Amino acid sequence: MAPTNMPERNPEQRPSELPAPYGSGPAGTAPRPRIRVHHLAQAKERGERFAMLTAYDQYTAQIFDEAGIEALLVGDSAANNVFGHETSLPVTVEELLPLVRAVARSARHSLVVADLPFGSYEVSPEQAVATGVRFLKEGLAHAVKMEGGAHYAPTVRAMVEAGIPVMAHIGFTPQSEHVLGGYRVQGRGDDAQRLIDDARALEAAGAFCVLMEMVPAETAAAVDAAVSVPTIGIGAGNATTGQVLVWQDAMGLRGGEGVRVAKFVKRYADLRSTLLEAARQYGQDVRTGTFPASEHSF
């Protein structure tokens, strides 16, 4: 089912051709402004697309910001991409806050969104508001993302009323992997209506955007058509307003023996091989005494 509530997109349109604030613009033009939540809404209204990548540190935030990536997600995926866990469940607010601060301080233009980790919002709307306040006040984030469907509409409403912009996350929700029976596609067949209902309820509660993960493309298109707010996909087809990927997946840093990459990931680089070869060369130079050479010495 194709979206019916937004202008037709031009698939040939490149990010640099998008009107302000999207794209970096030619040299010598006015600086790009900070991307805000209403800019993402305008993208959907205009039939444009925007990009989101995860970021967890100063340098990736600076690079992706310079590249014109409109939104950066400091995800709970830091658990298994920074801290070495197998899933996103163990990461805590205290662990994520320094990462959020680093990204927010380093990105001059991108919208910075912080994930609410497992256990930091489920107890009550009051708990969610308290956690969201910390991410905006201490982490300097511009918005937060939280997983869950219509059940969490009161929680979203409470956060928005407290001044916390909320990005909703439906479909496959990694924090609920044990309830869902593992990493499984959501929204197939008759289950598509549940996701549509979830998205509508979360939009009505004030969510400025709905992210969908591991959802059939047809279902994601139906959800996008059912809401006026922008949608973001990760493994959800090409009908969403935006797309997001974990940067270590997209840039080929994550890998090695026994590591599987999800079907929806496109690798744009092979940084793992580049770093591996560079580290090997460095080690060899040190062991053979060729580094440091005279030009590296005082």
From TrEMBL:
<keyword id="KW-0963">Cytoplasm</keyword>
<feature type="binding site">
    <location>
        <position position="76"/>
    </location>
    <ligand>
        <name>Mg(2+)</name>
    </ligand>
</feature>
<feature type="binding site">
    <location>
        <position position="115"/>
    </location>
    <ligand>
        <name>3-methyl-2-oxobutanoate</name>
    </ligand>
</feature>
<dbReference type="InterPro" id="IPR003700">
    <property type="entry name" value="Pantoate_hydroxy_MeTrfase"/>
</dbReference>
<keyword id="KW-0479">Metal-binding</keyword>
<dbReference type="Pfam" id="PF02548">
    <property type="entry name" value="Pantoate_transf"/>
</dbReference>
<feature type="binding site">
    <location>
        <position position="147"/>
    </location>
    <ligand>
        <name>Mg(2+)</name>
    </ligand>
</feature>
<feature type="binding site">
    <location>
        <begin position="76"/>
        <end position="77"/>
    </location>
    <ligand>
        <name>3-methyl-2-oxobutanoate</name>
    </ligand>
</feature>
<protein>
    <recommendedName>
        <fullName>3-methyl-2-oxobutanoate hydroxymethyltransferase</fullName>
        <ecNumber>2.1.2.11</ecNumber>
    </recommendedName>
</protein>
<dbReference type="InterPro" id="IPR040442">
    <property type="entry name" value="Pyrv_kinase-like_dom_sf"/>
</dbReference>
<feature type="active site" description="Proton acceptor">
    <location>
        <position position="213"/>
    </location>
</feature>
<keyword id="KW-0460">Magnesium</keyword>
<comment type="function">
    <text>Catalyzes the reversible reaction in which hydroxymethyl group from 5,10-methylenetetrahydrofolate is transferred onto alpha-ketoisovalerate to form ketopantoate.</text>
</comment>
<dbReference type="GO" id="GO:0003864">
    <property type="term" value="F:3-methyl-2-oxobutanoate hydroxymethyltransferase activity"/>
</dbReference>
<keyword id="KW-0808">Transferase</keyword>
<feature type="binding site">
    <location>
        <position position="115"/>
    </location>
    <ligand>
        <name>Mg(2+)</name>
    </ligand>
</feature>
<comment type="subunit">
    <text>Homodecamer; pentamer of dimers.</text>
</comment>
<comment type="pathway">
    <text>Cofactor biosynthesis; (R)-pantothenate biosynthesis; (R)-pantoate from 3-methyl-2-oxobutanoate: step 1/2.</text>
</comment>
<dbReference type="InterPro" id="IPR015813">
    <property type="entry name" value="Pyrv/PenolPyrv_kinase-like_dom"/>
</dbReference>
<comment type="similarity">
    <text>Belongs to the PanB family.</text>
</comment>
<feature type="binding site">
    <location>
        <position position="145"/>
    </location>
    <ligand>
        <name>3-methyl-2-oxobutanoate</name>
    </ligand>
</feature>
<feature type="region of interest" description="Disordered">
    <location>
        <begin position="1"/>
        <end position="33"/>
    </location>
</feature>
<keyword id="KW-0566">Pantothenate biosynthesis</keyword>
